[in-house]
Amino acid sequence: MDEGRLQAAFEKGTFVLRLTGDVRLTLCATLDQQVEPLAELPGLERVIIDLRQVINMDSTALGFLAKIALAVRQRIPGQPLVAVDHPDVRRMLDVMGFQKYVTIIDMPWSEPSDFSDLPALESSEEELRDRILEAHRTLAAMSEHNRIEFQPLIDLLESQREP
Amino acid sequence: MPVNTNRVALVDQPGARRDALYQALSACGRFTLLAADNIDALPEGLDGLIVHADIVPASQWASLVQRLPIVVISQERNSRALLAAVEAGVLDYVVDPVGHGLLLTQLMLRALDCRRVHASALRDRDRLEQLNEQLQTHLSTLRTDLQAGGQIQRRLQPMPCARLNGIEGDYWMAPSLYLSGDFLDYQAHGDRYVLFCFADVAGHGASSAFVTVLLKALFQRWLSRWNARLPENLPARWLARLNRELLDTGVGKHAAIVVGVIDCQTRTLHYSLGAQMPMPILATKGSVRQLKGEGPAVGLFPDVEYPTYHCELPEHFRLWLCSDGVFDCLAGNNLEERLSALCEHIGNAGSISDLKSSLALSDALPDDITFLTLSGFNDG
């Protein structure tokens, strides 16, 4: 099992949270307190949650994502985007009832250099296409830097990793 | 130049030898120097001693070494008095000290430093022992609390192997810690209905266990107030109320849950679920299938309406509910494979103990695991 990892970045109004591996936050009791400051970020316009490298998430981690989605609902114009690749993770999001609160996009994991083409989409909504294109760019940038605004959050989450 | 706060006594007979050494040491200026004639008349508040070997009777070295850091001075390397000091544990000595004022100063400073480090280590050790003792006390209090909590949880569980209106309820719970975040209950209502609830509160440990106690209280209260009308509406109504209750309580906890009503007269199961995974599994003669249904977890999203599902029950059936901890014990590379492995295990199991044996559950469980079965009617 890959142990879970978390990365976060805030750039040009976009907050990105990337989870990786087997994310188990069972014993993390203080996560809820981390959600509100995140939602109150000045200039927050877009939230992207990248789950493309997640192989498993426990219910505490899923609950944490739900709380983020709820906290930013009144503060950003669109819904948070959740990028998934693994069918099990997609299934868990569906079972938990996330569809109403976030936009789930199936987006295969690829290296940043492969981000130039936008995949063909069922959706005809221009705005959604733009947002997904923007998400591609932001996610690509994630691998190049990890801004420190969220270091306390990351430290907290990283400290909850299974030994 | 550091502040020379250390008070060091130079102990020797008064005279030219002591005066010369006093001058040499004062020139170095590394500590506050006091002169004394013998060890019985030492000034108060000393940090160290520079003492001539001939001044101290052999029998008194040992107690002196215990008291203060010492550097011994002597005129000859092979003097009997110097040997007595070394035997008693004095490590530092300087022969012909007047010519070696700087060396003597450095040895004294080192001895003072060693004593300081040693004293600090002793203080740390005492503090650690004290903390450790407090920790052990807290730990045992916590353990006692958890054990008491575990006993209360067990008292809230229904009777295993209970027969209710022709339905047999059975279960097995294995908390990964003292307390479980899993909750179940089944009760008869009148002579026609059997109601059940199966929930897995996110996380495990004390906070999740408290929510299971809340669930029990609510389940009990709502059951006692139910007027036995419209059983098909009850599960969805309960989940919506429970969702509100958890959000209003503000405990920040959510749960996967199934609530069901078995109507023993019409032989129908009415149920609603919130984020239950694995889905309820119905084993009948010759088939094992996952029941359909969806709905979000309770305690996460506000204003949720839950769909109700119905299922005809044949004459012989066993309904299985498992908490998601079971996935850790199933073979398969993905959820689908594990779910079909679970169905296969259930198809071959006539009881919960059969399932436990076939899953080969180990003692150390990564998550709470709970199984519940409701079987009937077996009257044909």
Automatic annotation (TrEMBL), chain A:
CDD domains: STAS_anti-anti-sigma_factors. SUPFAM superfamilies: SpoIIaa-like. It holds the Pfam family STAS. Residues 4-131 form the STAS domain. InterPro entries: STAS_dom, STAS_dom_sf, UCP029548_STAS-type. GO terms for molecular function: anti-sigma factor antagonist activity. This is Anti-anti-sigma factor. It comes from Kushneria konosiri.
TrEMBL record, chain B:
One of its GO terms (molecular function) is phosphatase activity. Residues 118-145 form a coiled coil. It holds the Pfam family SpoIIE. The keyword Hydrolase applies. Gene3D superfamilies: PPM-type phosphatase domain. Residues 164-376 form the PPM-type phosphatase domain. The keyword rRNA processing does not apply. This is Serine/threonine protein phosphatase.
